[in-house]
Amino acid sequence: MNLKLKIKLFLKSIFNKIFTNPTLKNKILRLLGRDYELDGRELANIKLESLENNEAVKNSNIGDFIVSLTTFPARIGILKYTLYSIIIQNLRPKEIVLCLSKKEFENFEIPQEILNLNKFGLKILWSDEDLRQYNKIIPILEHYKDEVIITIDDDMFYPQNLLKNLYEAHLNNKKTIWCQRARVLKYSNTKIESFSTWKLVKKNNSSLQNFPQFSLFLEGVGGVLYPPNSLHKNVLNRDKFLSLSPKADDIWLWAMAVLNGSKIGVVKNNSMANGNAMTNSPYGQSLWYENLISGNDKQLNAVIKAYPQILEILNKKEMRILQLGKFYPPDIGGIESVMEDITVSLNKKGIICDVLCSNSKLEYKQDLINGAKIMRCASFGRLASTSIAPQMIFKLIKIIKDYEIIHIHLPDPMANLALLLSNYKNKKIILHWHSDIIKQKNLLKLYLPLQNKLLNIADKIIVTSTKYIEESSFLPKYKNKCVAIPIGFNQDAFFNSKEVANNIFPKDKKIIFSLGRFAKNKGFEYLIQSAKYLSDEYMIVIGGGGNEALKKEYLSLIKTNNLKQKVRLSGQMERSLLKNYYANCHIFALPSIQESYGIVLIEAMSFKKPIICTKLKPSGVDFINQNEFSGIVVEPKNPKALAQAVAKIEQNYNYYAQNAYNRYLEHFTLDKMIEGILNLYNNVLES
């Protein structure tokens, strides 16, 4: 036992000798934020017969999970208090499974008031074995293989939001084992330090909340959520756990989680971090005391000796990624969509990938979306297409230590500056080069030293096409760092509507569809003018918005050329509805005069739509759309050429449509993009 623990236990014994009055003792413990025992008056107010009319029970929802626990004869009298606290949760389980040993209870009867709780989902599972504390999980795993299981202890009065917090965290990240109470392991390459040195994750440790990792040790007392198949198959090996860790089920379950590759996460605002209400005295000489003195360390060492690969997993560099970018959805844009695609896909694979970006408002906001932290820094607005968000600098300085890979999406001078002012040493820097800075040529001269510094320190540079590497004004010099990974797209992941509406366009028209922000570089005015050269069987539909002045120009152009029956501006579109537009259009056109990539081309190709785009430099649009194969490539600013491209596609429409789809499948699926990025991450971590 180390000195710190000796002092701690000595002070605790002094405290118990001085404060012998239970009521006074518990008042002090509550004041100090320590575990305390509910007094007799509080317990007397907990009446099982009142559950029928309890408003919390009437108003609560039922979640798709079960709660499991066990007990022994000496505690059966106070078990009702724990069960009561579970039944009045604001999100209740569909079943509460109380697993009991037949051997232990052969001479005891279960109180009728507990049996009566079957109307609230209580079920007793009898076990032929006496596995003691393991009864709450081992038989349950065998009988409920495909269920989400939340284990609890039998001597706690749980806060009303406990199950809801655990289950909501699970819905955001279904591969993680979630808990309310955990400790941070201390370890080296050769050993794990004594249990007494592990720090408790307190309620204010926001950097450790919603941050799944192997080095968090779950404590069952706070409630633990296990997704199906989240524990290694050896978890059920009685001989192993009864010999290696007979009195510390938490150690065995943590080891089986790590061995299985399942990370442990602490829920946000973890309500069981400290100062919990107990129905049994927390300061008696019990199993926890024995384990604290030496039992935990002995059992932990035994488990690690049997499974040395656990240490290897702990010491292996984890792939923790932080993406830096200008904005993140619901803010709309091509780069924003790519960031979302990467974030969602990696977190679904159980890989930590968070985002630091600007907010579109002057306020800081942090969300947990699909398991990822989205940290939006307060912005003072935009200047030369750059979001002025100095808070990003201070936030990155604070959190960069938590990540191994910094994936920065460019162009974004604010994110660039934030990274260079933070402690980026020993971090792997990935630049995602979406575009050169083209418009702001004078400001570029001021920014160029920062950009060059970033290019120099980068480990790798993701470029969206090999063509762009050659045509960029800045990348040829860094060609050896560049890796071409085309942006990918997956219909199913981001279009919510399952059915396609077929009545969004006039039935007697062939629709030439285009989509994008109303900006000068999009060249929509040339597409509008191309309608003059198309027959009345065609209609051009342009979706998007953002610049009211340009919209007025487009409307004036339509009116001046008498094209009201042939051109429609559909305005801003919800992403979930775009499926209908892509599915029902005839041809997709992107008439840009400057475009770095054009994700909308890939979206249209995934719906078997032939493409018309312009030949640009530097750009990847004419790499995406292969001329005279998946569509037609024309010179920019040429309305007549756009109309002629429509006529050419009509000559062999099915050929272009099928080739567009085949090219999408071969080069531009989301799976291919994520595979390429993951391979790159692994390579830089190993280098």
The share of residues in extended strands comes to: 15-25%
Instruction: Provide the number of structural domains.
Output: 3
Q: At the fourth CATH level, what is the homologous superfamily of the largest domain? A: Spore Coat Polysaccharide Biosynthesis Protein SpsA, Chain A
- Tell me the structural class: alpha/beta
Q: Write down the Rg.
A: 31 Å
CA-to-CA gap between the ends?
A: 41 Å
Strand order of the largest sheet: 17-18-16-15-21-22-23-24
Number of helices: 26
**Percentage of residues in helical conformation:** 25-40%
* Uncertain spans: 284-294
* CATH T-level topology of the largest domain: Spore Coat Polysaccharide Biosynthesis Protein SpsA, Chain A
Count of extended strands? 30
Largest sheet: 8 strands, mixed
Per CATH, the class of the largest domain reads: Alpha Beta
Instruction: Identify the CATH architecture of the largest domain.
Output: Alpha-Beta Complex
Mean pLDDT: 88
Shape: elongated
